[in-house]
């Protein structure tokens, strides 16, 4: 079955956050008129959600919900009810979800309730850390999915250990690669981005923080900010709305004074700075993947990661505390050699054809059904 033979709007893509927009953009583009995008509004801030449709060259979502800002259970429950109602009115041939967000779970549950084939892009990631809500989300969706698009052999093996194998699993690579390659600016523009911010290439740090484990605890958040402020290189910090809200709640706003704080950036600008930075410090899962494609090192400030493929090469896992500044000092002292070593490595996330493989596997699933 080809895209030309699929009825318009027959493949529902349920998503709700900036990373999902980025990672499903090429899938939607390949599906063409067959794609029906349902945006749950989990990221309800315009700077993190809807504007990325435009940046990635996608039309506005066909269906827009407003579940953002509610607690996790309410987000999932409200989105399931709304998506199920939509599926009852306009049944899709298949549903595609990505990653491990509340929107991902909602789309998966709604598809399962309507007996619609479910495709999970970026399946099989495991942190083995039950304190992470995302770990529960991704496990639920993998076990509901009719097709699991695993980004790496490691992810495929995780699925096999849980009894998910055979025709239900295909190794595709990670769809972030093609999104990044499409939007990363050329070097001339990257250097201009750096200069306009009063920075020097390879002589600044790019940082992001938003995970509850780091920003919902005032002591931990203060510790992270203290570590960033102690670095010898200037630190650029695009401030996530969640982090900004917690800083206000905890009265920690003055701790930003030593950092170069910005509003959330466009994806292209972020990639431009990430390409030219000395290294990154972040708790983001996506940044770990992007670092491997851009061949820049990242200090991952978390207790665990679901992306072990980059540990020991592009990423180092460090819990909040003095280890952040210690590792940063070590990297800064020998930065040229570090960049040269990483520049010779290939990303474990594929060659930029993951979306094509995901769409082809979806066609195969529909043919079997």
What's the topology here?
Layout: E1 11-15, H1 18-31, E2 35-39, H2 51-55, E3 63-64, H3 72-89, E4 94-98, H4 102-113, E5 118-121, H5 133-144, E6 147-150, H6 153-161, E7 169-171, H7 176-183, H8 187-196, E8 205-208, H9 212-215, H10 218-229, E9 235-238, H11 241-250, E10 260-262, H12 267-276, E11 279-282, H13 285-294, E12 298-300, E13 315-317, H14 323-333, H15 335-343, H16 354-368
Parallel strand pairs: 1-2, 1-4, 2-3, 4-5, 5-6, 6-7, 8-9, 8-11, 9-10, 11-12, 12-13
Helix pairs in contact: 1-7, 1-16, 3-4, 4-5, 8-12
Overall shape: globular
Strand content: 5-15%
Q: In total, how many domains does the architecture comprise?
A: 2
User: Which segments are poorly predicted (pLDDT under 50) over 5 or more consecutive residues?
Assistant: none
Q: Do you know the CATH architecture of the largest domain?
A: 3-Layer(aba) Sandwich
Helix-strand sequence: EHEHEHEHEHEHEHHEHHEHEHEHEEHHH
Structure description:
It is a single chain. With 369 residues, the chain is an alpha/beta fold. The chain folds into two domains: 3-173 and 353-368, 3-Layer(aba) Sandwich (Rossmann fold); 184-343, Glycogen Phosphorylase B (Rossmann fold, 3-Layer(aba) Sandwich), CATH 3.40.50. The protein contains 16 helices and 13 strands. It has helices spanning 18-31, 51-55, 72-89, 102-113, 133-144, 153-161, 176-183, 187-196, 212-215, 218-229, 241-250, 267-276, 285-294, 323-333, 335-343, 354-368, and strands spanning 11-15, 35-39, 63-64, 94-98, 118-121, 147-150, 169-171, 205-208, 235-238, 260-262, 279-282, 298-300, 315-317. The strands form two sheets. The protein has a seven-stranded parallel beta sheet, sandwiched between helices. A six-stranded parallel beta sheet has the order 10-9-8-11-12-13, sandwiched between helices. β4 (94-98), α4 and β5 form a beta-alpha-beta unit. The longest helix is centred in the first third of the chain and has 18 residues, at 72-89. It is globular and about 60 Å long.
